[in-house]
Each structure stands twice: as C-alpha cells, then as structure tokens.
Description:
By secondary structure, chain A is of the alpha/beta class. Chain A is 32% helix and 20% strand. Chain A has helices spanning 20-26, 58-65, 93-99, 119-129, 137-147, 164-175, 194-211, 222-228, 246-251, 256-265, 330-336, 344-357; strands at 4-16, 31-43, 47-51, 73-78, 102-105, 182-186, 214-219, 231-236, 239-245, 311-314, 317-319. In chain A, a hairpin with a 2-residue loop joins strand 8 and strand 9. In chain A, helix 5 (137-147) packs across helix 6. Chain B has ten helices and twelve strands. Chain A binds chain C through residues 20, 63, 66-68, 89, 91, 95-96, 99-100, 102, 104, 106-108, 111-117, 125-126, 128-130, 149-151, 153-154, 156, 158, 160-166, 171, 174, and chain C through 2-4, 6-11, 13, 15-16, 128, 190-192, 194-203, 205, 209-210, 213-214, 296-297, 300, 302.
Amino acid sequence: MMRAVLDIQNITVRRRTGNIFARLTSGRAKEITLIEGVSLAIPAGSTLALVGESGSGKTTLAHTVVGLEPFDEGKIVVDGESGEGWNLSWYGRPWQRIRRKIGITFQDAVASLDPRMTVAASIAAPFRIHGIRGRDLRAEAAALLDQVGLARAFLDRYPHQLSGGQARRVSIARAIALKPQLLIADEPTAGLDLSVQGEVLNLLSGLRTRLGLGCLLITHNLPVARHMAERVAIMYLGRIVEAGPATAVFENPAHPYTKALLNARGGSGGKRPAALSGEVPSLAQRPLGCEFSTRCPVAQQRCRIEAPIETTIKAGHQVRCHFPSISTDSQSLWEDSRWLGGRGAVAGRKGARLAVSNIRLAGS
Amino acid sequence: MNAPLLELRRLSVAYETAAGPVRALREVDMTVRKGDIVGIVGESGSGKSTMVSAIMTLLPPKAKVGGQLLFNGTDLNGLSAEERRALRGNGIATISQDPFTAFNPVVPIGKQLVEFQHWRRDLDAAKRWRRAEEMLARCGLSDPALRMRQYPHQLSGGMRQRIAIAAVLLTDPLLLIADEPTTALDATTEMQIIDLLLEARSMVDGAILFVSHDMGLVGTFCDRVVVLYAGELLEIAPVDASFSALRHPYSQALLACDPLHVPLGATTFPTISGHVPDPLAVQRGCAFAERCDRRMPDCAVQVPDLVRFSEGAVARCHRLSA
Amino acid sequence: MAAPPIDTAIIGTTPAPSFRWPAAVGRFLLAICSNWSGTIGLLLVTLIILSAVMPHLFAGQSPTLLKPVERLQTPSWAHLLGTDQLGRDLYARVVYGASTAVEIAVTSVILAACSGLLLGLFAGYGPRLLDSLLLLLCDALVSLPMIFCALAVVALIGASLGGLIMIIVVFTMPSYFRVVRSQVLVLRGAEYVKAARAMGASPLFIMFRHLIPNLLGTLLVLMAMDIPAVIALESGLSFLGQGVPPPTPNWGGILSDGYTYIRQAPHVIIAGGLPIIVATLGFTFLGEALRDVLDPRSASRRPGGGRP
C-alpha cells in the first residue's frame, strides 16, 4: 500500500444556521449537517473522482481539506501530517507547511483570479504567501505558464482578458506553483465549451503523470470521472454512498443512486428506466434512515428508519445501502446505458455508435 | 408538406462597435414547419443566442438585421413594436435556462399563471385558474393547488422549470423555444425535465426549437439539428441517437469531443485545436477552416456553398460539395 | 464571447510596456481626459489646488488688507469680484480661501477615509461581534445632529482649525465605514479571496493584496465626491460663525458676510458661492472619471466582441 497523500478520516461538517437573534428567539441552535462521516484516501500519484449532484457536499469537502471550512469531527491527514487544530480555518504557522502540499483550482476559474492582478501576480501569489524569497517571481510565473501551455505574453493580462479555458489554465498554474503533492480540481470543465474541455482534461492528466500528483477530482460528469480517475466516490446529501475502483463502480454499481446517475446520462425513450422521482432533499430536512430513501426505487420500510452502514462488497468497493445489488445483471444495465459507448473498452468507437443507436426515441 | 411556420432567409445580424462591425449571424437560412422539433447546437460565440433573440424580436435596437425572418408568413423584421408585442404574447414562447427570472418573486405562482392567459378573453378568472391548475398537474407537479398559492422562491429548481413549462403551454404557442432548459439542473432532475418536454411535444400544436450545447440531449429530443459556428450555419441534418447523418467535419468533431463518446481506454480526450475566428475579422473562406483537420487548399480562400442533400439536410463544406 | 482568439502558440500582441513612473502617470492623465467631464474636472481641480498652494500667482492683492473707503464695491477691473463690507478685495479672498478650503477638506477627507477603511476592514473581515459593535457605534454617531455637536464642541474648546477637522472627520467617517464594510462583506466571499485563503494567505495579506486594491477605486471616488461636500460643510460652519476664525479668508465666511449685505451688495454672496460651485463640479467630475479609469476592466476593454 502506497502512502496516502490525502487521508480523510470520518469527517463531519456541521453548520449553525440563522443569526444570533433567530437563535435566541427560537430557543435552540439549528444545525445542519453538510458532511457526515466521510472517509477517503488518495494514494500518492493516483486520482480519486468525487461525483455528486449540486448540494451533495463535494465542494464543501474540498474546502474542508484546504481549511476554508472548519470541521466538527474526524481527522484530515495530508502526506502523513495532521496539524493538531488543523480544524481552525484560520491562518497560522503550523498549517502553512501542510497547505503548501495542496493546490486547488476553483469551479469558476475567472472569479478565482483577482480582477486587479495580472496573471503574473496571481501565479506568483503562492510564493509571496509562503514567504519564498530570492527568486525571480516573473520568471517562475513564466515557467509555470509554460507548463500549462500558455505563452509568456499572458503574464501581463488581466483575468477579464482571458477566455474560460485560458483562465482555467492560469488557475492550474497557480495551483501547481509550489509543487504540491495533491491537486484538488473542482469541476475543471464547468462552463467550458466541449471543444476546450478536452484540452483542460488532457492538461490535467499530463501534469498528474509528469509531477506525480495525487488528484482529487470533483465533478458531476460521469464520463470524465470514468476516464480520469482510478477510484470513484459517489456522494449524496453529504455522505459517500458508494466508493470503489472506477471500473467496479461503473460496471457493477451497487447503490441505486449510482445506477440512477448512470442511467440519467444514458437517457433513452423506451428502454430507459424511469427517471428518479423528486429532487435532492434540502439539507435542513435530512431524511431519517437512509438519505436516499425518499427517492429510491427499491426502498423498503427498513430504509426509512435505519441508516445503512458502510459494507464492503468486493476488495476496495464499499457501498452504503441495505439492499445493494451485487448481482451480475448490472452488467446488462451497463451495456444498455449509452454514456460510455457500452461494451467496454474492446468495442471502442464502433461500440459507442452502436450503443448510441440503441436509444432511438420511442416517439420519433 | 405543410407551409413553413418559421423561415429564416439569409438572416444576418451585425453589431456596430468601435473596432468595426461584429457579425454575430451571417446569412442563415432555415425552415421550420409545424410539428418540427429542431435542435440548435453551437459553442460560445456560435450565434445561437443571437438567433433566438432575433426570432423573439428581442435584439437590441443597435443591432443591424438583414435578410428576412418570416413567422407564419409575416416578416418579423418589418414589424412595429406594437405588433411585435402582440406576437410574443401568443405566437412565440420561450423556456429559459433560469426559470426563476421568468417569474415575479413577490406574486404567487397561481396569480401569475392566470395573468399569462390574459389574451384568452373567452375565459373568466375562475376558468383560467382551473386551467392553470390542470396544466400544473399535467406537468407532473405534486399538489398543484398548493403550488398555485406558493411563491417562486419556495420551489426547487426542477419544480420552477416544470412551472415555467406549464406557463408556456398555457399560452398555446405556435413556436416554443427552449433555450438550454436543463443547463442549470442536476443530472437526475435534468432527465425528469427532458421526460416532461418529450410529453409536452404532443401538447404543442406547432414547432419546438431546442437550443443546447449538448449534442446528446439534442439527439434524444429532436428530429433535426442545426449546427452553428461563428455565426454561420454549417449544417442541418436529421438526427437520431446515432448522429449517423452528420456530415460536416465540425459536427463530427464536436460529437467526438463529448466525454460520453470517448472510447474507454483512450489516453487523451479529443479536442478541436485553435479558436473560434475573431468576429471582427473579415471572413475569407470557411469559418471552420483554421481548425479543421480535413481542410483543403480551397477552404481558406473560398466560402463554401450550402450543399443540399435532401429535404432538411444541408451542409456547408468543400469536402462535401466535391 | 469575449474569448480572444489566442492560445498556446503565437500571440500577436506586443508585450506590455514596462512600468515607468512618468509614462504611467501620463497614461493615467490621458485616460482621465478621455472624456470632456474628466477634462473639465481635472482642469478645475488643478486650478483650485494651484491657487491653494500658490495664491500669490493668481491674486496680486492682499486678502486681508482693509480699505474701508472701497467697501462693498461692485466688480470692476481693480476688484474682479468687488469688495466686501470691510473693503477687502473679494477676488483675493476667494483665491486665498482655496488654501483654507483645500487644507481642511483634503485633510479631513483623507483622515475620514483612512479611519473608515480601517474600521470597515475590521468589521467586514473580523469576527462578527466586532462587526455588530462597530456598526452600532456608527449608527449611533450618524443619528447625532452634526451641527449641534459642532456648535457644542466649538463652545467647549473654542473655534480652531483642528477642532473643525476633528468634527468633520468624526461625522463623515461612518459613510466610508459603511461602504468599506459592505464591500468587504462581498469581497470576502469572492472566489479569489477564498483561493488566497486556501493557499494559506494571512488576513493581512488578504487585506493588503486583495481587499484594499479592490476597495481603493470606490474609496477614491467617494473621497473625490466628498471633498466638495466637506467644503460646503466647512463653509456652512463658517457661515454660522463656528468655522475658521477670522480674518483667515474662507469661502463660507464670504458667504456669511454676503448674506448680511444681500440687499445692498448681492455680488458678495455670488463671490462666496462661485468657488464652492466650481469646487463641487470639479471634484465630482474628477471623481467620476477616476471611477472609470481605476477599473482595469474599462481601462483595457477590448473593442467589440461582446455578446449583446
């Protein structure tokens, strides 16, 4: 077992709601749980994709790891180090060493760059923050731009002069400035045109191999997760409902929610199972028992009372469900679904066409 | 063959700027007939939102419009502001990306839905209310009576989009424009809305324009796809889920870029290298020539003609005209 | 669709000119003068500052020389704006009054802006309790009637320049505080501030590198627009006899004198009002031009290419 570059142990994040007056008048502090008992490990140099819909808590988890968000229980170990009191999302010397090991890119790349700073200043910011002196910061910034495939002339640009893809590259350059061991990429393709998405993903996987980065990839795009990650964790309402090797999770999904997600993108008129009913419940009204029980097509009485615990169905493949499907017929579901061209790697491009043609609309 | 409902004839839209004219839409020809469901696909800068604004006659006054835009036989470009307003009321309706902005936040849903029917003079308020409530039920909203009394902010994104669809259907539009109706929604909710739109197809006695950047969705939902690039119409083709009728290199490249279609085990994602041409630049040759991996010497110097293959299948490419 | 058609390989743009002070200042002034209101503003403000610094260049006569024989004369070539009830040349008094006005206005506005900025930063970026406390304090301050307080202070410590500035600072500070605080509350949630925090930036780093630069534009504009208000305020207090002690020439004093003789010699009140109007216009125009220039988005906006 390789050393984990990131080891999240049983993290729980709660937040109190309402202002002080509301709390006083209602007589009780209302708490919502954003993340409940999440454990994850990323071995050095490998990629884990965190998949979920909006409100599932995947971004909150990333923010917790970099200390933007305090957590209430659990432990976060980065490259073997876990600062006591790392919980404080405030600034302080002991945590700086840990922070240097993590680079993060945000969902909205343009907004994550100060509109009044040039690209050069933005990329050099990590050096300034960590008090690294005696280097030509402009040269460093130019070298970093080079690594992400942007020309030197971008050094003096302002964020509003960049296209979405270029801003994304700049934010990646800033994230890798201090040679981190872990890169957190939050929705790296959000808001990008299809023809540019590929460039950013190719850049990320290139950097990952070149720099030996561990990578936490946060995405709602299943095909992206499938291609980029060795391991996948599916989040729903602040919990990880299923986690395992990418192939296992995608080809033999055990949790009904994972299946629903896979089906959602494989939408076909007649053959597709009905879309999930309802929507993600609000965090303030977390369902009793299993979080997913309100929308689950196979929910039983037990699911609404008792929260399922994590069970391992195969080596490294965990699921949190009372009635996981471990049967082999999930293979057929995989083949029905169009989203990865079915029939696995062998069929390749032709397979994609074939599977796609399966789903002609019933009505058309 | 029925008469065309919407016909664009060499429709151009240009904006005058300090640095010269920006040609947002260049001589687009398109015909939509009753019963058609047409997808409009394009990346940013393709001109698809300009096209939607043009059809809705919502272009800013400084825009210079050329060509003809015939809706039900009348040229919308020549209409007065008064006539345009009347037309927007019960001829053309849209579902936008963010349905929240479509509703007044301080008025209950029911009241707004009743107001949407103001042009139905034959109905009294009670009937309009009942009609709205029935439409909500048909659009799959649980407890429509309650929803009618609620305010927009009390509803989730998916519910709001359902209500927006219901509101649009209440006006019995001849042309329904769905402008990226699922972009702001989650994957599982997205499928619910697509299901609803599939049902709504039978309720619309006219045509639907489905604007999207997602080829996959267009394949699920539409009969034909219109591919726009840098303000130019590159292809119109019938679609099914396999997209086998797409001929233009750009359409094919765009399809290949979707991670959905990337074969397993591929080490890199396909991309289209280069950039959309500068909208200020004078066009010489094919708009896509610079990024095309199948370009010929002709492509850079001569604008290809629109080649017609069959009814509803055209493409603009030198490779295909040869 | 502002995507500039540029990427990895070749970029056609010339490298940005290296930063040199004279050139940068020149570019800055040029940008301000790019529209007529900015030009007028700059011109008027320059005029006011010049007459404040070197009044003798503009006015040949002494502002305090009494010539009772020539009292309340209408404007003539000898006295461009006429004379007041003591026979002092009004033009000279207006010119020399600029230095009093500018001294008080600029000092108090700078002091108010700095204290407002500091408190606003603490309130907006610091703990919530501090925020509530400072907000309460400022609200309480605003609710006090300024003129009465000014009169009370003058009654207590006597009329003096320092006292006047102190009063003005205390009463204009809350407006800066509120603007800064609300801006900081917005900025602290901005993605780039989060990004800096995630990289481990200290609160000081965030304040100096991200918050203050992004606040400065708003603040400068606010200051430029506040200067005429403060001049008017100071004139008002002088008009009430609680401002700058005589015989120092000041605009409010002229106005106050003019009020007394408005029936016999209306030109006096005009001579007092004119510089206040000129200063108000000049600083307001300059403030608006500054707001446009200080935003990098407007300074180097690409022509066209924007989606309607």
